[in-house]
Every structure is written in C-alpha cells, then in structure tokens.
Amino acid sequence: MIPTSTTVSDLLRAPIPDAPVGKFPVRILVCGIPEGVNQVVYQLHLLGFAEVGAWSPPLPSPITGEVIRILTRYFRADVLS
What we know:
This protein is of the alpha+beta class. Helix content is 23%, strand content 27%. A 3-stranded antiparallel β-sheet has the order 1-3-2.
C-alpha cells in the first residue's frame, strides 16, 4: 500500500517493505492534470496492463494543478543477466 501522507520524492526514496524476495521494484509514474492521469490509468486497465486499484491514489505534484499516480511492478533478479 502506498502511503498518501508523504511527498513523491520521499516515496521514491523509501524502501518497499513488502517487496517479494528476489525481486526488484520498478515504479511507473503517470503525471499531469487529474483528468488526464486518470484517463491513462483507465486505458491501461482496459489494455490489461494493470488494475486501476493497483495504482496509488493521486499524489500532489510539484507542478501546480497536476497529480502523480504510481504503479509498482516487480521483476526477478535473474532477468538482469
């Protein structure tokens, strides 16, 4: 679960306590006006990329009037070689 009481910068630096053993997190960010960000999240859901609920709630962006939503995916360490 992504906490909502932190900044995006703090969130990206924070360790992920529930990361699966042997897997590394990759965070995917969607940034922009709230309506556009939500539209992209819904479109990615329709394409089978990720459930809408897997994304963070809208987080404040450093850009006035914009938000950021984050999706964390994991990959195995052996995929790196």
